[in-house]
């Protein structure tokens, strides 16, 4: 990197946030602790749950600094827990007693969903394109705060279905549709259409993409928060486990390549969620149980506290 580019980084700190469904509560905990400790944040890139957290951080920083960002993130996850309390996708009584409700795999609805996803397309399962995330986010996203001149530069990534390429949405263009697109799992929801283009989860093109954080000049420091396990021992056996691991591997390979290409001047700091997530079943990504989210939140705070 040239001396000019190095000078223009000016100590900026970039935040890269992975997606991972409810496992994003780990990310919430990490960032909450960093903000409590006075961490500066100048730019953010996120996908799926990472994009939602990034949105809350951005508008919260504008509204009330670090305390405002922490409050906005908490508001998001409280909303997730409230929505889950009303959801028919609940753990069976035995699982709730044994594991606190984190495993949904014996839920009749979960088993039905798994079977339906193997037999039918999202358009057949969900012909009206209902996305519960839309109702959850509708009154949380405040576009005037995202577009405020003092806001950190926020990038939300989604994957263009036709080209397979990542598409980046900036502060001014981020809305509920964009966040739903960034979190659109193609086996569950129909693609989200924005301006005539169809989009799937941003993680397929990079979880998260780092390119937007390196433009127009690389930051002095890049903080990466993972919300999915980087390593997973054993061989998956069920169709759902196999698909999940294939997705993890594909996303991990893209991220690894981008990390390897980071300019030498960029200091990398990362917080990995392996210890917090490896013991969890795949179905827990859809669990919004308040106690479960709190457990992951505390694990994230502890990881950030360890530095």
Account of the protein in words:
There is one protein chain. This protein is of the alpha/beta class and 307 residues long. The chain is built from 12 helices and 8 strands. Strand 1 (13-17), helix 2 (24-36) and strand 2 (43-46) form a beta-alpha-beta unit. Helix 2 (24-36) packs across helix 3 (49-85) and helix 2 packs across helix 12 (290-306). The longest helix has 37 residues, at 49-85. The protein starts with a helix and ends with a helix. The model is unreliable at 1-7 (pLDDT under 50).
Portion in beta strands: 5-15%
Number of strands: 8
The coarse silhouette is globular
User: Which residue ranges are poorly predicted, with pLDDT under 50 across at least 5 consecutive positions?
Assistant: 1-7
Q: What order do the helices and strands follow?
A: HEHEHHHHHHEEHEEEHEHH
Helix tally? Answer: 12
Q: What integer is the average pLDDT?
A: 85
Radius of gyration: 19 Å
Main sheet characteristics: 8 strands, mixed
Helix content: 40-55%
């Amino acid at each position: 990197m040239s001396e000019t580019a190095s000078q223009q980084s000016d100590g900026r700190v970039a935040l890269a946030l992975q997606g991972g469904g409810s496992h994003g509560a780990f990310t919430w905990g990490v960032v909450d602790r960093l903000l409590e400790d006075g961490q500066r944040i100048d730019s953010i890139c996120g996908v799926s749950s990472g994009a939602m957290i990034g949105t809350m951080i951005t508008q919260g920083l504008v509204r009330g600094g670090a305390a405002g960002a922490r409050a906005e993130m908490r508001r998001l996850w409280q909303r997730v827990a409230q929505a889950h309390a009303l959801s028919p996708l609940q753990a069976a009584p035995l699982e709730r007693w044994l594991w606190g409700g984190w495993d949904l795999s014996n839920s009749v609805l979960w088993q039905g969903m798994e079977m339906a996803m193997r037999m039918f397309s999202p358009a057949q399962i969900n012909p009206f394109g209902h996305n519960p995330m839309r109702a959850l986010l509708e009154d949380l996203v405040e576009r005037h705060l995202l577009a405020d001149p003092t806001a950190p530069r926020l990038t939300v990534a989604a994957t263009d279905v036709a080209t397979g390429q990542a598409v980046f949405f900036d502060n001014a263009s981020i809305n509920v549709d964009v966040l739903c697109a960034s979190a659109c799992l193609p086996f569950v929801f129909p693609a989200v259409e924005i301006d005539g283009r169809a989009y799937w989860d941003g993680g397929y093109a990079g979880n998260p993409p780092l390119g937007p954080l390196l433009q127009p000049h690389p930051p002095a420091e890049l903080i990466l928060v993972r919300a999915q396990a980087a390593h997973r021992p054993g061989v998956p056996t069920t169709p759902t486990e196999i698909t999940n691991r294939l997705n993890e591997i594909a996303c991990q390979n893209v991220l690894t390549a981008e990390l390897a290409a980071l300019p030498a001047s960029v200091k990398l700091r990362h917080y990995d969620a392996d210890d917090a997530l490896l013991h969890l079943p795949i179905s827990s990504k859809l669990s919004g149980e308040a106690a479960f989210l709190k457990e992951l939140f505390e694990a994230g705070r502890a990881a950030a506290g360890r530095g």
